[in-house]
Design brief:
The complex is a heterodimer of chains A (about 120) and B (about 425).
Chain A: E1 3-8, E2 17-23, E3 26-31, H1 37-47, E4 50-51, E5 54-60, E6 66-71, E7 75-76, H2 80-87, E8 91-93, E9 101-103, E10 113-115
Parallel strand pairs in A: 5-8
Antiparallel strand pairs in A: 1-2, 2-3, 4-7, 5-6, 6-10, 9-10
Chain B: E1 6-12, H1 16-27, E2 33-36, H2 65-78, E3 82-84, E4 87-92, E5 97-102, E6 106-117, E7 121-123, H3 126-129, E8 139-141, H4 142-152, E9 159-163, H5 167-178, E10 182-188, H6 197-204, E11 211-213, E12 215-221, E13 228-233, E14 246-249, E15 252-255, E16 259-261, H7 264-268, E17 293-295, H8 306-326, E18 334-339, E19 343-347, E20 350-352, E21 361-367, E22 375-381, E23 384-391, E24 400-404, H9 409-413, E25 418-424
Parallel strand pairs in B: 1-2, 1-6, 2-3, 6-17, 8-15, 9-10, 9-15, 10-11, 18-25
Antiparallel strand pairs in B: 4-5, 5-6, 7-16, 12-13, 13-14, 18-20, 19-21, 21-24, 22-23, 22-25
Helix pairs in contact in B: 1-2, 1-8, 4-5, 5-6
């Protein structure tokens, strides 16, 4: 039995509301696409949804108690909560350079967690 | 670093607009450039915008806010820009004397040959949207909460309601969820989302946070601390619909109800403000009505993208450097740009006719009403079409740019004014 899904395409700001017909993981039809990028988006979104994740980790010895960090590439959406829990345990010491790898290969995904800014030692 | 008494170019504010202006001023011949910033470090609000989505136009990279800021901080420092941090500007005179106060230097007067205003914008507060009810702790602007959560490590509550579907509100809904809070509801008085669809999907839908359009806060409940808010549906005229009230228990209400350019200092310098943008009237080089005083970024009008703030900063810094070096105020013909059909405002509000000789001029505008059909964005001289651009739709939340090309130079020379309008294709 084909299933129907509604997906909002976020490839561009227009935000087309797509109607997707699929059978399991096979996409049969995508309606209401404003352009051809909609179909590619639907495929990625229904099979392996990913998101950029930005959060903070604790840091000692700097102007602020938190260091902003982000995923080097989009991270599997179902595992975001698990990632946040793991990052809540991380504690660094200043100084840290922008782009420094804070966690390598987070949760075995191959995706590194990077420092979003430099954080100098206070003083 | 010794702060001098006189600078070729002084920039007020070390956010993205100010940093770009300072860098550009140095690149365009200003011998010495100073940025005055009230925070302890440069970067502005980008430092608390830890989410991604910055730099897609300028760097072709998807960066978090702090990374975007740092690229410009590093460039400003390496290009020899002086930074005066932890310093408030108290007053500016029309002849560009700047009075500052800081712990390090006390009260200091600095003279600028050219000045760039880059103070950014402020959030609209509870008082400005007149929310009824008690006045307990727990009512904050979304940006204040963002600073606490992302920079200072302080969670302002556990159960949130957010008023306003602007981008900051939606991004904070996700951020608070990440930090273990429950976001009970996002309320939006307009019949449409005011932020980007991308943020609706990635911040609200992804985390099952409910958005109610055409709803607002009727009343805040609680004595010492917010205990609940009373939400209500509204009609097209924003009038509450009786019987639609709902009590939503929560301990914190965040307001994401708009940004207003911050122009207290501009007024002191004699800068005339456009009531439609709440920012200075500027020309195509971002010069205000006061000779030698320029303005860049969200202090002029609130942009959608930091990339455009950077571009405005670069343009104003260049113009400021040229003014400082030549100390000449060219009196040239200025042509007003008027808002036509379905256009709320246009920046710049006037252009120097002569500028079009060398380079295209970008006009940026917001529409009044959403149009979900293809439109032309037209620039007209009387009944004559001077330039136009096709858009697939026009929405108040998304700024539109239309370019006046160099080839329109001759036509524009004879114009008394130009009008920008939105018409259906």
């Amino acid at each position: 039995m084909p299933e129907m899904d509604k997906v909002i395409c976020i490839t561009c700001p227009k935000g087309c509301r797509l109607d997707v017909t699929r059978e399991g993981d096979t996409i049969l039809k995508v309606d209401n696409c404003g352009c051809k990028r909609g179909e590619e988006y639907v495929k990625a979104e229904l099979t392996d949804p990913r998101r950029m994740v930005a959060t903070t980790v604790k840091i000692q010895g700097s102007l602020h108690p938190l260091l902003p960090v982000y995923t080097a590439s989009p991270f599997p959406k179902p595992r975001i909560r698990e990632l946040l829990t793991a990052l809540a345990e991380v504690e660094l010491s200043a100084p840290v350079m922008m782009g420094a790898v804070v966690v390598k290969d987070a949760l075995g995904t191959g995706i590194d967690i990077l420092a979003s800014r430099e954080m100098k030692a206070a003083g | 670093m010794t702060i001098k008494d006189t600078y070729d170019v002084v920039v007020i504010g070390a956010g993205p607009g100010g940093l770009a202006a300072a860098i550009s001023a140095r690149q365009n011949g200003a011998a010495d450039v100073l940025i005055i910033e009230r925070d302890l470090e440069p970067g502005g609000i980008l430092l608390q915008c830890i989410h991604n989505g910055f730099g897609l136009e300028v760097f072709k990279q998807d960066l978090p806010g702090p990374s975007y800021a740092q690229k410009f901080i590093d460039e400003a420092l390496s290009s020899g820009v002086d930074l005066l941090l932890d310093t408030m500007v108290l007053d500016i005179t029309p002849d560009r004397k700047i009075f500052t106060a800081s712990r390090k230097l006390g009260i200091k007067e600095i003279k600028a040959k050219a000045l760039v205003l880059a103070m950014g914008c402020r959030e609209r507060t509870r008082a400005q949207v007149r929310l009824p009810g008690t006045r307990p702790a727990g009512v904050y602007t979304a940006g204040t909460a963002q600073r606490w959560v992302n920079v200072e490590g302080y969670m302002p509550g556990k159960r949130f309601v957010i008023l306003g579907s602007g981008d900051i509100g939606m991004i904070m809904a996700r951020r608070l969820t990440f930090e273990g809070a429950k976001v009970e509801r996002v309320l939006e008085v307009m019949p449409f989302l005011t932020g980007l669809t991308r943020n609706y999907v990635q911040c609200l839908l992804d985390y099952d946070i409910e958005l109610q359009l055409q709803h607002t806060v009727k009343r805040i409940i609680g004595n010492k601390r917010v205990e609940a808010i009373e939400a209500v549906a509204v009609d097209e005229k924003w009038e509450p619909i009786p019987g639609s009230e709902e009590i939503i228990p929560c301990d914190t209400l965040l307001l994401s109800v708009g940004l207003i350019p911050e122009n207290e200092l501009s007024r002191k310098a004699g800068v005339a403000l456009d009531p439609l943008t709440a920012g200075p009237f500027v020309d195509d080089r971002f010069e205000t009505n006061v000779p030698g005083v320029f303005a860049a970024g969200n202090v002029v009008h609130v942009y959608d993208l930091v990339d455009w703030v950077t571009q405005a900063g670069l343009a104003s810094g260049k113009a400021a450097a040229l003014y400082a070096v030549t100390q000449e105020h060219k009196t040239q013909k200025k042509i007003p740009i008027r808002s036509g059909e379905n256009v709320h405002h246009v920046v710049p509000q006037h252009i120097c006719a002569e500028s079009l000789k060398d380079a295209d001029i970008k006009l940026q505008l917001r529409v009044k009403q959403p149009v979900e059909d293809p439109v032309w964005v037209e620039v007209r001289k009387g009944a004559n079409l001077v330039a136009r651009r096709a858009e697939r739709y026009a929405r108040p939340g998304e700024m539109i740019t239309v370019t006046l090309p160099v080839k329109a130079y001759d036509e524009v020379q004879s114009a008394d004014d130009l009008t920008v309008a939105i018409v259906k294709r």
